[in-house]
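Discussion board: Methods & Data

I've been asked by a reviewer to show the raw model output for two of the constructs in my manuscript, not just the figures. I'm not sure how much to include, so I'm pasting the format here to get opinions. Each protein appears as its amino acid sequence followed by a line of discrete structure tokens. Is this the kind of thing reviewers expect to see in a supplement, or should I convert it first? Here is construct A:
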Amino acid sequence: MARKIILDCDPGHDDAVAIILAGGDPAIDLVGITTVGGNQTLPKVTRNALSVLRVARLTEVPVYAGCARPLVRKVEVAEAIHGDSGLDGVDLPEPVTEVGSRHAVDFIIDTIMNNAPNTITLVPTGPLTNIGMAVRKEPAIAERVQEVVLMGGGYHTGNWSAVAEFNIIVDPEAANIVFNEPWPLTMVGLDLTHQALATPAVEDQIGAIGSECSEFVLGLFGFFRKAYQEQQGFENPPVHDPCAVAYLIDPSVVSTRKAPLDVELRGEFTVGMTVADFRAPAPEGCTTQVAVQLDHQRFWDLVVNAIASVESR
């Protein structure tokens, strides 16, 4: 059976690819998209989600807007990486569907509580504000979620500070809540996603599709490449967020290692750091793990196939 997921995101170039992958692979049942302020402000990322769904011919997927700001801290966006719109580099089509009337946090809670236990997976690819709020508002969801697979963090590297990744440092208090709930949690962090590079060979594969969606993705990669070259010194851009979706489609694409995880909240130089304890085999009952190795070719095959499938919808 297809995995039922809620994609909690802040589109975002790589979030857009994650939406296309989640909607285009038969192993995934995308039951809804929730948006959170992150890569850009909440109104911008919500509009972006609706526009991507139009490009991907997934307009039946509902979208619910969530938290516009972190639990405690000031709003911070990633304009240097994603541009003023959050999806610079492409012409965004006008949405043809509207945002749902419910708050994203309530949609998350209602969906989990109204489905059978262990049938809904949460896939956050932005700051963890919505997820943290949901489990605080209704703690029972922690026992009913099948799994949380998040893009964020890193056990050896950061990008917004020396040790902290953007999604975590934007709202470390929410991340601390999410990491310390008893649900099964997989952290797909920078150590893994920096292996998911959109190389010229990958772009050739996508370009060969010759569709509106493939040209849209190439436009995203063009802007993303320049931003990453200028801001972080990458020759080819890492496409982070689809890695979390790919793991759910085919777990063999991503190898993992169990380890206790936590989030630093108080360090002068380390706020937002995700701390993985690798000192010994994970203790019995450990519910958290980290992604460590990506099958690059298999990953991109999944993405290319999902882009190609858009034309058949």
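Construct B, same format:
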Amino acid sequence: MKKLLIVLALIAAPMAQAVEPSEILPDPAQEARAREISKGLRCLVCRNESIDDSNADLARDLRVLVRERITAGDSNKEVVEFVVDRYGEYVLLRPLASGSNLVLYIIGPVALLAALGIGFIYLRGRRRPAGQVPDGLSAAEAARLKEIMKD
């Protein structure tokens, strides 16, 4: 039983959030807003972790910044805009589908469709119609084959 608990604790340990008790806001509604905003912000050190899940110092600074902006009375949108203005759009785990990012969202499916189209055309071009398959060797080819085989 102890071994099972140890294994479960080791599995659950990476899932524990990195928010420290000193960072938690006293108002539960504000803390819930901070957690919701933090889920959408990327840790710039860890890359594909949210700032809530990261133990990096920069992630901690971002968590504190988000909570400061909420305490100052900013809306969720204003907090996210503030962080994006300061760190760039890369800080968003789900970048906006606008501007140059729209090209990145569209180019993947377009490239896939283009590859499928090219593959289809290639395979279709390789297929021979049934009427063009020769039945056997022509008389000239048979004579040439006999000549080669004598050597």
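Answer (T.O., handling editor elsewhere):
This is acceptable in a supplement if you add a one-line summary per construct. For B, something like: The radius of gyration is 32 Å.
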